[in-house]
Amino acid sequence: MRRPTEILRQMALWFLPAMLAFVSASGFGALLVSGFGYSPLLVFSTLWEGAFGDAYRFSETLLKTVPLVFTGLAVALSFRTGIWNIGAEGQFLAGALIVTVFGVKAANLFAPIFFLLTTIDIFLSGALLGILAGWLREKHGVSEVISTIMLNMIVLQFLGYAVHGPLQEAARTYPQSDRLAEVARLSQLWPGTRLHSGVIIAVLLAIVLWLVLFRLPFGFRLRVIGQNPHAARFAGINVSRHIIAAFALSGGLAAIGGAIEVAGVTGRLYENISPGYGFTGIAVAMLGRLHPLGLLPAAFLFGALESGARALQRNLGLSSVLAEVIQGMTILFVVLFETRWFRELLNKRLNVK
Amino acid sequence: MMEIFTSLLTSGISLATPLLLAALGEIIIEKSGIINIALEGMMLVAAFFAMYVALISGSPILGLVAGVFSALLSAAIFALFCVGAQADQIITGAGLNIFALGLTGVLLRRIFGLTGATITAPTFTILPVPFLQKLPIIGPALFTQNALVYLALLLIPITWLLLTRTRLGLHLRAVGENPAAVDAAGLPVQRLRFAAVLIGGSYCGLAGAYLSIAQANTFIEGMTAGRGFIALAIVIFAGWRPFAAAAVALLFGVASALQFQFQAFGLKVPYQFFLMLPYILTIVVAAFFRHRIQAPAAMAKSYFREG
């Protein structure tokens, strides 16, 4: 039995690069805003107020966290398996599309007896996109980086077609769908706020994925493949089949996230339903060090950044896309801190002491 | 009929130019064994600074210089990460894309206000080439364009010559195929890759500047709208060959021009399916014509000397 202090020390060591990366990225953000003539202190206090100022704002932060958990989990699972899946964005949109089709055109599918089936269908929409990329990689040697980027663009166009065409609202005014039927909506969790039960599903799925990855033989095999596919093959693991399975799970997770965003928050589908959640998911997964539970605080942090950035725009007239600057920088710093070059630099410094 | 064809070709070439420029740049980068998915970000940064400098100086040429310079700067960051520190190329690229989208958005709203007042930047105007523009059909399409289109046309053979007929090109291609052998031959692997990223980055700068100060005459947040990814697709589609890239870029350009014609004719094919086509074709080509198009063997792999 390890002592609690030892566990804490290990956790701190594990989180250190991520924390360092986020602090560096925020530092860069501060530099940028002071370049614009704002006081960084004021900017950060406004961010804080905007994200945690009162109960409603806190709920909005949680609301922004939910989709990031799903895309973060999707990215973390695939990166762990050595798959560079950039397709979470498209898979997220696919889930959003399917839930809208069902919720608008066939709402009785959300009745309790069909509910599981409907969920599976939504999962499949993303999973199939993943499987397609996996099949292309394993059977045809197409890099998943390329195929998932292409699939993102294809789904995005298809969604555009859907909301301009067959799925467009009955009124035909805006390129958006009708509202989902009430049965298809997620229940409200916190009266007076927009918070929905999706937040619980997100946390539960993170725990499930942690169990799968770190407590089940299947997850162990995935991680072995991610570390060293050759060794995995010699150990008798069917690498191709596992990789395609990981693609499917990853895609399905992202799709569920998209469905929950529509069923929980927006209530209808439109083109810009995702402000790049799939890509921010990469930042979340990296910051959470590809750990299903580690990425929960990372997603929360980015959720807070998103909702805080709204306050920046409202109160200071500073663009809310500042959040993206910090997100992008965070990815860059995490990547930098995980390179061999940085580790060697660190070791050298520590040895000199 | 001829007029329709010519006008289709004219707008096709003008739509293809930024795709071609970015694709040529990416060919150089990928030939050296680096995959750069941050084309989108580099173009966006260049588009912004080209517009900004053209606006305050009144000169599209200065704008172009600023655009290329800013893209070079982002390429240098990318190279420092992926070549210098040997960070993962995919994640660095993804990070850079998000960062560029954020940075240009913040700068745009800070400088021009949150409402985004209409900006009209000075632009490269149409510059007909004497005599050549009189050629039937292709004359007006090829030779009544702006200067950047001509530059892009010139860069097709130049890129090809650079890659196949110069010492630097030979070394770059060798680095992309077998960096260990290049290293053993005493050549600086990392410096060559750094150079490739910078050269390719400057092409992206031209492509980005084209968008803001030759095509749209303004800057809109996220105005690259996936063109960086189409360029990525063109590179594969063309099998990493400059002339083929030009043909594919033209095909994609004409396809998007066709989309407008179709709408004008009232044809009922949803234009989104047209816009999907390049991506679908790329997947198909990458999957089923793989034996004919070989990716550089060492692509996306960092090189460190063993031992």
Tell me what the structure shows.
- The complex is a heterodimer of chains A (353) and B (307).
- Chain A is mainly α and 353 residues long.
- Chain A has a single domain (55-341), classed as ABC transporter involved in vitamin B12 uptake, BtuC (Orthogonal Bundle).
- Chain A is built from 14 helices and no strands.
- Chain A has helices spanning 4-35, 40-52, 55-80, 88-105, 112-140, 144-164, 198-215, 217-227, 229-234, 239-266, 277-287, 295-316, 322-337, 340-352.
- With 307 residues, chain B is mostly helical.
- Chain B has a single domain (2-117, 137-288), classed as ABC transporter involved in vitamin B12 uptake, BtuC.
- Chain B contains 12 helices and 2 strands; from the N terminus they run ααααβαβααααααα.
- Chain B has helices spanning 2-31, 39-57, 60-84, 89-112, 138-143, 147-165, 167-177, 179-184, 189-215, 227-237, 242-265, 271-288; strands at residues 126-128, 144-146.
- Chain B has a two-stranded antiparallel sheet with strand order 1-2.
- In chain B, 52% of the residues are buried.
Which regions of chain A are unreliable across 5 or more consecutive residues at pLDDT < 50? Answer: none
Record field, number of beta strands of chain B = 2
Average predicted local confidence, pLDDT of chain B: 88
For the terminal residues of chain B, how far apart are their CA atoms? 67 Å
* Helix-strand string of chain B: HHHHEHEHHHHHHH
List the helices and strands and how they pair.
The complex is a heterodimer of chains A (about 350) and B (about 300).
Chain A: H1 4-35, H2 40-52, H3 55-80, H4 88-105, H5 112-140, H6 144-164, H7 198-215, H8 217-227, H9 229-234, H10 239-266, H11 277-287, H12 295-316, H13 322-337, H14 340-352
Helix pairs in contact in A: 1-2, 1-13, 2-3, 2-12, 3-7, 3-10, 3-11, 3-12, 4-5, 4-6, 4-10, 4-11, 5-6, 5-10, 7-8, 8-10, 11-12, 11-13, 12-13
Chain B: H1 2-31, H2 39-57, H3 60-84, H4 89-112, E1 126-128, H5 138-143, E2 144-146, H6 147-165, H7 167-177, H8 179-184, H9 189-215, H10 227-237, H11 242-265, H12 271-288
Helix pairs in contact in B: 1-6, 1-9, 1-10, 1-11, 2-3, 2-4, 2-9, 2-10, 3-4, 3-9, 6-7, 7-9, 10-11, 10-12, 11-12
